[in-house]
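Need residues for this backbone.
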């Protein structure tokens, strides 16, 4: 069970130093889908669906239970935790000696997760530069996923034209955005508002397709078996995408930026920071080759002799013991870098 280290809980630990507590790096400490996959069944969510690869995506709203039934999505699929740090590299915290050591480990986990998000974002954006020939030559690369990621990035500021409310018994009704806002407002008055806490807010709606891609709530229909598959594994958690980040894109920089969102004169509403991802045109072959792009995009995190650019060090070295990361960003110029 995940534990939030609140001031009251820390005071309890000071008074009870014999207590041992497990901790895992989660942004939302209430999320524990492995132990209780049905916990969020009555909460409302959005997902992005490509049920026809030749057409634009659909934006779906509804309770988790109804969405799962409609599209046969696993109950543990959302809300998502975002990227997770390798537990062999940084195991869960267990309070043994002092709160200082516990705090140190928590800080390490937070930093490593942050840098892993940066790497994952860089790899995701860079994959959109892969050409047809390179994709065909590499089994690690899924052509459909690359195509859909590129489509979402290229149209990130366009609202999905088709939006649906998913109902019980695998039924759904089409709505306008105005109707949707009225429906959500009405439901909030009739039910507990906590059921709406993991819906991306209206203020972030301009980039909702990209937001859902980044938190792992974007799916496509596999033409081979008809199953719905996730386009990309989550980089951000659902909670982060709702409360912390508004996403924007710049077409003239290779660097990402993160700034606070000013909300003077009114009660501040989430999200509270804005991340602008660098998404420039693909450089010429003279500046960056397809081989360089492919090598970075397909590089796994774990070390092995065939991996040129691992994130984690060799477990047999002092770098592993000292928690020295290897490749957070690509070693080549002209590939997008990312900060979160």
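Answer:
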């Amino acid at each position: 069970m995940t534990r939030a280290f609140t001031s009251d809980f820390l005071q309890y630990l000071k008074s009870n130093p014999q207590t041992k507590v497990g901790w895992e790096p989660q942004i939302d400490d209430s999320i524990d889908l492995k132990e209780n996959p049905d916990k969020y069944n009555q909460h409302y969510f959005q997902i992005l669906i490509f049920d026809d690869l030749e057409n634009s995506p659909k934006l779906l709203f509804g309770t988790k239970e109804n969405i799962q039934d409609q599209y046969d999505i696993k109950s543990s699929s959302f809300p998502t935790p975002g990227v997770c740090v390798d537990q062999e590299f940084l195991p869960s915290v267990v309070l043994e000696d002092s709160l200082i050591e516990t705090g140190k480990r928590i800080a390490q986990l937070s930093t490593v997760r942050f840098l892993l998000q940066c790497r994952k974002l860089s790899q995701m954006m860079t994959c959109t530069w892969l050409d047809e020939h390179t994709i065909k030559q590499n089994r690690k690369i899924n052509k459909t996923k690359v195509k859909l990621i590129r489509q979402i990035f290229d149209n990130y500021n366009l609202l999905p034209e088709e939006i649906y409310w998913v109902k019980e018994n695998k039924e759904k009704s089409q709505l306008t955005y105005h109707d949707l806002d009225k429906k959500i407002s009405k439901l909030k008055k009739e039910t507990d508002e906590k059921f709406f806490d993991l819906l991306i807010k209206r203020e972030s709606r301009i980039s909702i397709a990209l937001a859902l891609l980044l938190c792992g709530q974007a799916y496509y229909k596999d033409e081979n078996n008809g199953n719905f598959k996730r386009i990309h594994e989550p980089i951000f958690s659902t909670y982060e995408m709702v409360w912390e980040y508004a996403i924007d894109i710049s077409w003239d920089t290779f660097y990402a930026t993160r700034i606070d969102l000013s909300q003077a004169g009114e009660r501040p509403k989430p999200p509270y920071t804005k991340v602008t991802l660098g998404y420039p045109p693909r450089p010429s072959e003279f500046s960056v080759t397809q081989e360089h792009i492919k090598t970075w995009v397909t590089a796994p995190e774990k070390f092995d002799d065939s991996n040129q650019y691992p994130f984690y060090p060799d477990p047999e070295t002092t770098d592993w013991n000292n928690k020295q990361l290897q490749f957070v960003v690509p070693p080549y110029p002209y590939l997008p870098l990312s900060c979160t």
